[in-house]
């Protein structure tokens, strides 16, 4: 394989060559043996493994709404309820925040990925099992939140780096399918956990989920592989690489990241409080937990649909479609929902539009790479690092939204003074979610005004 062909493929997948490495890609017969990108048995098997990882690692904290309701009302922690909302958002926030660090480490030391993936799975399971012995909220934050989040980041995040090797021109669709795993897990796990929580309590529910997670995730330690051969340290090989972060100074990145952070500040709140809100308007436990399942089920369609849309339309338009749809869902549909049917409609709309927002990240990455090409037409922007930084931006929202939501509930001034959901005591959450969804689309306005 010639150097020009090698550099072209590296530019397509978004990785940078390692300094001092002359045999980055195999040549001759080994090069011909590389499986194809964008399709084929190996690529689709890899994507299926990513989908499973996404469903289990992310589906559990995204189903936290049923735990939120149980912890606050079942008597175990009702006297110490302050901080419960932070448990689930801490777990998701840590995985998001850890993205740049873990993805950078994966790219620099690919030969160690299997080792810290195994460590990650062990920490995840330890966090779940330890949470089953918790007697206070701070212990749940430490175990079901912090420990689970650290483990999940080590196990899951290498998949983002490897997906960039397997899919090039169908990258948006591939990321959309992968991220649809969150919706699938988030759809099924609340139904399963509601049954265990009601019949057996949270301690048994957590232990059973630890066993299920171990069975499902252990095979991924061996099946999660990159397309390119693993580079190992040795004579004449330097694994260090430059990570070009100059794109962070561009107006495009700043505006897009700002919108991403704002969207994250409201995104998690409906998923946390929908079961509690449903109970507040008189719905049963089963009907309440189904709201979370509907949000996450719709997110499956939203991720795949918006992921495919990103490959076909201008990225700022795709972001705006997601933002406007989610805004309407929050302010109009949820805002008027005081019975079962409109609340379910909200859950479906919100999951589809807001849940698909992160599927725009691959398109954002491509736009930034195009903007940041050098005089030779080569982009040194690393796809995985851009996605990681946007994940970290969303992590700000994940971490902040838990405590923020409790402040908004306590400060709500609309109870009994407004109609619909706005007067139920959850009005501040409805309004905050809607406003943040709208401003998540600020890049469209910046693009329209010629600012980026």
From TrEMBL:
Domain Major facilitator superfamily (MFS) profile: 252-452
GO MF: transmembrane transporter activity
Domain of life of the source: Eukaryota
Keywords for this protein: Membrane, Transmembrane, Transmembrane helix
GO terms for cellular component: membrane
Family note: Belongs to the major facilitator superfamily. Monocarboxylate porter (TC 2.A.1.13) family.
Record-linked PROSITE patterns: MFS
Alphabetized PANTHER family for the sequence: MFS MONOCARBOXYLATE TRANSPORTER, MONOCARBOXYLATE TRANSPORTER
Membrane topology: Multi-pass membrane protein
Key word Ubl conjugation present: no
Coiled-coil spans in chain: none
Keyword Transmembrane helix recorded: yes
Subcellular location: Membrane
Protein name as it appears in the record: MFS general substrate transporter
Transmembrane segments: 43-64, 84-104, 116-135, 141-163, 175-196, 208-226, 247-269, 289-310, 317-337, 343-364, 385-405, 425-446
């Amino acid at each position: 394989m010639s150097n020009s062909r090698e550099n072209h493929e590296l530019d397509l997948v978004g990785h940078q060559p390692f300094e001092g490495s002359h045999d980055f890609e195999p040549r001759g017969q080994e090069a011909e043996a590389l499986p194809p990108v964008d399709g084929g048995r190996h690529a689709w098997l890899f994507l299926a493994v990513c989908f499973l990882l996404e469903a289990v690692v992310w589906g559990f904290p995204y189903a936290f709404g049923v735990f939120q309701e149980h912890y606050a009302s079942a008597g175990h922690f009702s006297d110490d309820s302050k901080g419960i909302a932070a448990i689930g958002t801490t777990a998701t926030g840590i995985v998001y925040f850890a993205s740049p660090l873990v993805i950078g480490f994966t790219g620099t030391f690919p030969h160690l990925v299997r080792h810290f993936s195994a460590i990650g799975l062990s920490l995840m399971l330890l966090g779940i099992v330890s949470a089953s012995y918790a007697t206070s909220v701070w212990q749940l934050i430490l175990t079901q939140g912090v420990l689970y989040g650290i483990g999940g980041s080590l196990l899951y995040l290498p998949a983002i780096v490897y997906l960039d090797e397997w899919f090039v021109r169908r990258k948006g669709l591939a990321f959309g399918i992968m991220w649809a795993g969150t919706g699938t897990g988030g759809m099924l796990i609340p139904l399963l956990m509601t049954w265990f929580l009601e019949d057996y309590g949270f301690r048994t529910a957590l232990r059973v989920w630890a066993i299920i997670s171990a069975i499902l995730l252990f095979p991924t330690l061996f099946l999660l592989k990159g397309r390119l051969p693993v580079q190992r340290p040795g004579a004449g090989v330097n694994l260090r690489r430059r990570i070009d972060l100059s794109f962070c100074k561009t107006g495009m990145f700043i505006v897009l990241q700002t919108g991403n952070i704002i969207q994250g500040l409201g995104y998690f709140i409906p998923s946390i409080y929908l079961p509690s809100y449903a109970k507040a308007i008189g719905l049963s436990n089963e009907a309440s937990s189904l709201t979370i399942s509907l949000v996450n089920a719709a997110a499956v369609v939203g991720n795949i649909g918006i992921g495919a849309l990103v490959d076909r339309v201008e990225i700022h338009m795709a972001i705006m479609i997601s933002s406007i749809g989610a805004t309407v869902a929050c302010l109009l549909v949820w805002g008027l929902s005081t019975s079962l049917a409109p609340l379910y409609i909200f859950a479906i709309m919100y999951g589809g539009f807001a849940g698909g927002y992160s599927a725009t990240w691959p398109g954002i990455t491509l736009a930034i790479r195009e903007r940041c090409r050098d005089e030779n037409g080569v982009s040194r922007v690393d796809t995985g690092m851009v996605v990681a930084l946007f994940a970290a931006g969303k992590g700000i929202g994940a971490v902040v939204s838990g405590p923020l939501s409790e402040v908004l509930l306590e400060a709500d001034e609309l109870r009994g003074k407004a109609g619909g959901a706005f007067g139920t005591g959850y009005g501040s959450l409805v309004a905050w979610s809607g406003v943040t969804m709208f401003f998540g689309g600020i890049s469209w306005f910046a693009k329209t005004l010629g600012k980026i």
